[in-house]
Amino acid sequence: MSEFVVPPALERGDRVAVVAPASNRATEYRHVYELGLERLREVFDLEPVEFPTASRDSDYLYDHPEERARDVMDAFADPDISGVVTVIGGFDQIRMLKHLDPEVLRENPTRFYGISDNTNLACYLWNLGIVSFYGGTVLTDL
């Protein structure tokens, strides 16, 4: 790797993927999650696109790390998605990393925002030469 790629900044009207690559508490605190989505729309003028893991509970996600990885890769590979925002941090993200295809991510650098356990994915992207951003989960920050 010779240099890092900084994915383009988000602009008003951009579509952002909402994924749960670690755990998910949105199923338990739906009103808080919906408020976060509303703020993405109203405050930041972004269009959230909920990927399948955003509607799965933590128990399901724990049993399906490959689905968490699939959402991340699908979000990065989608040319209509300008950024990826996590629902929340949590636990257990480390188990989904082995299911990622580094080529998909490297060929499609996309802005990634997350905190807490999402540091695992941020480090994974860093090792691929993709800059990510610490902060901004839908459930806790927005």
List keywords for this structure.
142 residues, 5-stranded parallel β-sheet, 13% strand, 5 helices, 33% helix, alpha/beta
Walk me through the structure.
This protein has about 140 residues and is an alpha/beta fold. The protein contains five helices and five strands; from the N terminus they run E-H-E-H-H-E-H-E-H-E. It has a five-stranded parallel beta sheet with strand order 2-1-3-4-5, sandwiched between helices. Strand 4, helix 5 and strand 5 form a beta-alpha-beta unit. The longest helix is centred in the first third of the chain and has 13 residues, at about 30-40. It is globular and about 45 Å long. The termini are far apart. The mean pLDDT is about 95.
